[in-house]
Amino acid sequence: MSLITVHQFTVVEDRHERRPDVVLFVNGLPLSVIELKNATSESATIWSAFNQFQTYKEEIPSLFAFNEALVISDGVQARIGTLTSDREWFMPWRTIDGEELADTKLPQLQVVLEGAFEKRRFLDMVRHFIVFEDVGGGVLHKKMAGYHQYHAVNVAVQETIRACVPVSETFAVKEEGGTYFAKGQRDAKPGDRRVGVVWHTQASGKSLTMAFYAGRVILHPAMDNPTLVIITDRNDLDDQLFGTFARCHELLRQEPEQAKSRTHLRELLHTGSGGVVFTTIQKFFPPEGEDQHPLLSDRRNIVVIADEAHRSQYDFIDGFARHMREALPGASFIGFTGTPIELTDKKYSRRFWRLHQRLRHRADREGWRHGSHLL
Asked: Is the pLDDT of residue 314 over 60?
């Protein structure tokens, strides 16, 4: 693996000659470009660097054919985004190792370089945390995970492997090349089928976090081509989340499927491996006249992903949740929610498999907060 950074790299295209400040080449491909402005100049800001990128994209577009990330900085502030990001979505990267927020005394450029461009993290981002979404009219937007999404997903995947793998096979949890940048539950046991809960602040990309998580779990060798079952409690949420996953199907290496009825759901889950299945929890209802749902699969490499898994749903879903466990007794469970929850709520802990909190990331943007917490 060859990683080379070039300062003042000259690009000549269609009679335009430009010299971006820093270009990162990976195996000869220019995967990232960094534009820097002088912090001592009152007229130079990160948005001057942003505007410079707009010029580059017009005059030397070939430089960006393989681009994965752009960084802008004025020496004090720094932001990271993609080729299609507007100002709003050039965001700070606020952690280096993923366990704590970086010291605010550190230059933001240092944090983004050490946090997002550490060799393994950057290659991980390129492979698992970038998606394209069609916003209509044939226009594609390139989206990259924020720091809170990246670290939350990696810890959730780590806990998923622990929860799914039986005690006799705990060796399968380990990966070569190091570990992710956070710790799991203190009291967790291998094979206990309790993954945890990911809590998101509102409008901070929960649906995409779920898609990134699904893509990582599907590709993990310890999961052996798993089946993912995404659960919501309303048809509109099911349609909305299904749309996000469908647009990210390349990340999933397969097209997701949406259960249209209880019969269709049972057909989709009668599979020996693979599959990304969307359903409302109400479809886990036993046949007429029966109190127990028939077994659909006892495989352990099934992960149930509950959207909006919060305590207001307890009484409503309790019966359906029982039937779901009857249908999939070997499945492991993870919840994603944007609704504030209480860490001391024992009822919540029993229902949604409390994951000991290790990440408390947040990002402020225009007066409101982005973040993902693992609980």
From this structure: no
